[in-house]
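input
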Amino acid sequence: MSDSTNPPYYTLLDPPVPPNPILSDVRINKKIDIDHNDNLSSLKSFVDLFKDRQNFWIEVAVLDRLHYKNMNQQRPFHRFKRSMELRRLLKRLKALDIAKELERLYLSFWNAKSLDKCTSKWNYIPSKESVQYTLHRLIGASLLLDKLKIVLVETYRANSTLLILEHFVSLALVYMGICSRLYKLCHIWVNQIEECYHMLYTWSTSFPSGLKQKEQASFALSNNLACDADTLKNVRSAHAQNTMQLKSSIQHKQHLETYLVNQAIVDKVKEIQKQVGLTEFHGMDDLDLEDLGGGLAIQSFQCQRTAF
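output
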């Protein structure tokens, strides 16, 4: 059993692979009724599926290009800071390279270094610690994708304010389109990771430990690789609850001093008020305000606060 004081592997940036990750197939537990060839085929499908993320990374490349082209002009704006946070998470997800980790696990059945060698019958199996390592990497990837979805929503909303202000409309539309597509792709990817996790966890019961009996206790004390069938679900739920508590935008209304508002913005408020048919206006207290660098501007009307 793992020492609770040690951080789980899914929280570590680049944890080492456990020792003895590859074993002979004669050590597989034959008492457990599992179709290993079918699971191996499923694992190969997930490897190919996670590698085939061209649409996702094309959107990321466009986002990077927008960042560099608009850095000097848009740097002071709140929406630009949201996109910077988005890029940091995307870089972390790319560095995690979950497709490569699944490929490592797949190659271990042949003790090979490339997929070209995986054509004959497999004669090796991964150790239980090796599979648990992959499970923790899947948990880490799912948490990153969950964070990405939150930041994508925030970036979308931050750029949608430009449509009201009629500033940088074409730029805002591009950002909103990228956020919408990435959100959908992240949602699909998380569901695939969850399916892969449950398949690997069920399969891992057939694999023995790669450590000797006397080594297992000391390894468990210094490495937190513990996980069960519900670990992924529980960790994601706990992360979602913590995010709800920590997000200042959810705890408190975003506001700034209204006396700094430019008179031209106040006039624009009244103009939009007439266009949308609002009959009551109690001053700037009814509006969310956002620092747009050169002054404050309208973020959204209270009635539009829930729109994504």
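quick obs: The first helix runs from residue 36 to 51.
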